[in-house]
Amino acid sequence: MPTCYETMDDAALARETERLQADVDALAAQGLTLDMARGKPSPAQVDLSRPVLDVLTSESSLTDDGVDAANYGAPDGLPSARRLMAEVLEVDPAHVIVAGSSSLNLMYDLVGHAFTRGVRGATPWSELGEVKFLCPAPGYDRHFAVTEHFGVTNVPVPMTETGPDMDLVERLVETDPTVKGIWCVPKYQNPTGVTFSDETVRRFAGLRPAAEDFRIYWDNAYVVHGLYDQDDELLNIFDVLAETGREDLVYEFASTSKVTFPGSGIACVAASPKDLDDIRLSSNIQRVCSDKITQLMHVRYFSGREAVVDHMALMAEVLRPKFELVEQKLTDGLAGLDVATWTNPRGGYFVSFDGPDGSAKRIVAMCREVGVTLTGAGATWPYGDDPRDSNIRIAPSYPTLEELGQALDVLVACTKLVAGQLAAEARA
Ligand SMILES: Cc1ncc(COP(=O)(O)O)c(C=O)c1O
What residue ranges do the domains of the chain occupy? Predict the structure, then answer.
């Protein structure tokens, strides 16, 4: 579909790009400094979790379920913290290890485990010629960074409206033994906001990998992060695996980073009992035990899944108007021009925006000149290499509503100008 600028005659296009340039110049003259780059909760959201800090005092009992949180012990985490995270993920607490304050850290550790020790006795990846990971794209840049850091070849797989392109996933996973993993954010995916369909989850659970040490890295970072009462339903992949009796396929991750305090909450990994035993071969070398005091604060504050869900409803009150403003501003500014498409997620932290081919780097650079920092163009693709140079990740959570509105006005104006410029250049 041609953009509206491509359908204009030369004179009209010249007039229009001049007008669009004037709009951008006027915005630049405002001297804005706005940041819509990273998916951080706003101060108003984080403040909602301050009462978590009040649940422990020097007078508090630090013993929980017979475990002394103030001392070494319970390397898999406080039993009550394992129960809480198991309730959140709807898995068996015995299949959960709670450790550390960052799920990304656990993902890094598991890739490290595969490299140094090997998955379940398989040859350590450090001894293999090539190791590949599938990277649904657009996707989460820090996932791609972990595997890139270890020298893994990151292979992009297109995201669709129902999850990754499963025909391609099945073909690559089932025929190529060097494919050892796939990064997935199955609910409110970063950045598209897509929740994987039941069929996608069933196809993941039904994979017959060519490599015995292949695992799905199922990062359920946004498991309780719906914006509306009607939450997206994600089929529980471990339930599907249990039906088929094949549970050694998935490592599931989550954390409270966007529930309470980013980087200062609790994180967990869920896996089959045999996979957990395998993981312990590395994790029990790495540490004596993890931070059980923070775990205790979380379980004293959150009595169970319902309490987490109630807390997240308060978060959603703050976040929902921002997502609705994104949808409104983009619709008002760009609908009908055929210059961009974008997602309208019902949860998570991001909106995925696509401009015309060859536009993303220019839009991001132009926005920066006008005073708006966006996530770098290409960040949503492995190696920063978006083949169409079209995708931009919008992170609406951190700015205030007013700042967000201004930043979106800039994005809209720059998208239109770049689309006009591209149409003009194609004729020159
Ligand atoms: C999909 C996804 N996973 C993990 C993280 C980071 O989580 P943590 O703070 O638990 O390392 C983020 C943060 O934006 C994310 O979007």
Answer: 10-46+309-427, 62-302
